[in-house]
Write a structure and sequence with these properties.
Length: about 230
């Protein structure tokens, strides 16, 4: 085991324990998070795990920010294993594919970044859009709708979402090089966030999908769009 890998494992164990003890994640959620982190690190190394850490730190901050104010709208709960898998399983899959198909590692690195950009964009636009949004609209009808409902967006939330996708893309660029892939990641991540809102306004409100499945689909859609942008 290299020194770098040893340091990573120590930090990972501390992060898992800290996430559980502080109530950010359930025990099962913390363990699933560890498996996702291991898969991402094994495939994408320091850059991959930095993108994941950025998502977790920003999502944790956004969820905790103005918590009392948001409690009047909805009641956030500790993230369990299903929620963790919904946000990170596609990125973990990309990490595994980078190991199994090293010839396509560059492709799966972009797709991994796209999924994490989508998860980050969705979380921050929702959590901070509720706080800083001024006018709220149903993404399907574009009519005014109730703050905090599935499929409801605000201009402020969308801008925050785009900004958070840019952060993930910049981390990717710092590790893998700044080129046109940055724009693919931002576009795919933002598209995944929009897809989340569309699914929320339609299938989730209709009772056909639950939130965890919507979160999983938004990351999968981001990966798909990223792939399409690459091959076009």
């Amino acid at each position: 085991m290299t020194v770098t890998n040893g340091i990573f494992l120590i930090v990972l164990i501390m992060a898992v324990w800290g996430s559980y003890k502080t109530g950010k994640l359930t025990l099962a959620g913390s363990l699933c998070g560890a498996l996702i982190a291991l898969s991402i690190y094994a495939g994408a190394g320091f850059t991959g795990i930095t993108m994941l850490a950025a998502f977790f730190i920003m999502a944790t901050f956004a969820t905790s920010w103005k918590k009392q104010q948001k409690n009047n709208i909805y009641h956030p709960q500790k993230r369990n294993a299903a929620q963790v898998l919904a946000n990170g399983s596609v990125a973990a899959f990309c990490g595994i594919m980078m190991i199994l198909l090293p010839g396509n590692a560059a492709l799966f690195a972009i797709l991994m970044a796209s999924t994490l950009a989508s998860a980050t964009s969705d979380t921050l636009s929702s959590e901070l859009g509720i706080v800083y949004g001024v006018r709220f609209y149903n993404i399907i009808t574009l009519k005014k709708d109730e703050r905090g409902r599935d499929g409801v967006i605000s201009m402020e939330g969308m801008l925050i979402g785009i900004g958070s996708a840019i952060i993930i893309a910049l981390i990717y660029g710092a590790g893998f090089g700044f080129n046109s892939d940055i724009f693919i990641i931002v576009i795919a991540g933002t598209a995944g966030n929009i897809a989340d809102s569309v699914l929320g306004a339609t299938l989730e409100r209709g009772g056909y999908l639950q939130n965890n499945m919507v979160n999983f689909l938004n990351t999968a859609i981001a990966a798909l769009i990223g792939w399409l942008l690459i091959i076009i």
